[in-house]
Amino acid sequence: MLIKLTIFLASSISEDGKRPQFGTRFLTDPRQVFQHNAWDNVEWTEEQEASAKKKVLENCQPLPSEKQEEYENRANEYWNDFYTIHENRFFKDRHWLFTEFPELCPQCSPNNVTHQKVSSTGRCVQDEERAKQGAAVSPINVNFPGATASYRILEVGCGVGNTVFPILKTNNDPELFVYCCDFSSTAVDLVKTNPEYNLGRCFAFVHDLSDVEANYPIPDGTLDVIVLIFVLSALHPIKMQASISRLARLLKPGGVMLLRDYGRYDMAQLRFKKGRCLSDNFYVRGDGTRVYFFTQEELHSMFTEAGLEKVQNLVDRRLQVNRGKQLTMYRVWIQCKYHKPLVPSPETRDGDAEHDCS
């Protein structure tokens, strides 16, 4: 019997898909906008929404097909160039992950190796049933990295480790093992040369998420958590569904997939000029890397098509402020949690039977 990962929704999550409270910084007086660097849960006016839609429509003429093929075929080159230039200086470590995704938090006690579930208060609580079941589980293949671990996390699109290393620093569970992969071999090399990289707790590898025929170094049905932070948006839209479905096969029953990515009409989308659009809501940056801007409905459709069930799907609208330049920047991100049912649906079960573990 596989270990169960039980996820409980925090009581602050509303039914209408709005994000739960993150801090207590709410803008009630527009005159105070430059008093802080950011404001939470910022509601857009109808005029603001209409202006964003107009801006997107003005710049939606797609590039010629030959240019689109070039960006697709050279995607690996563009991402390697990105990490060669920026190395580990571009992104900051994502310590906010443990607030947004308590599934990544350490266990309650350093002396207790059982794993957490999330209570209505957002704090981890002991799950003795999972621990007892985990003790009886035999690895599918004892030769894969982290085979003896009882709690396994995979980050897809790890970059230089801004998610992986905070997890390893914060989660002191001796039964934890973290896998991380990236399309860019340059990024993976930077992870491996980081002094905090420890093969006893972590395994980094190069992998193309969009290549669903490529093998993972992890058997199907062995992961507790899969993390995708601003990575799915880098894929061509026609490859997203198959990629999510392939990842879902890696999850244990009860395992959870966590995503945070760009939402429709985010500031970054509205800043694109003409000549940067590849297709609807899909753009190429000046450095050749690409980005898509999602709706909640699109992501829900992909996850459910992969046989996963919704735990959370919300929009995070945040107002960021440059107080020095007196500028306001409206960010739109989408955050999702979808888990694999403990008992798969007949459709999912039939589909999985067609695949070998890889």
UniProtKB/TrEMBL annotation:
Entries under InterPro entries matching the protein: METTL2/6/8-like (IPR026113), SAM-dependent_MTases_sf (IPR029063)
EC number: 2.1.1.-
Entries under SUPFAM superfamilies matching the protein: S-adenosyl-L-methionine-dependent methyltransferases (SSF53335)
Record keywords, A-Z: Methyltransferase, S-adenosyl-L-methionine, Transferase, tRNA processing
UniProt superkingdom: Eukaryota
Gene Ontology MF, one: tRNA (cytidine-3-)-methyltransferase activity
GO BP term, pick one: methylation
Pfam families, A to Z: Methyltransf_23
Role description: S-adenosyl-L-methionine-dependent methyltransferase.
Family from the record: Belongs to the methyltransferase superfamily. METL family.
Name recorded for this polypeptide: tRNA N(3)-cytidine methyltransferase
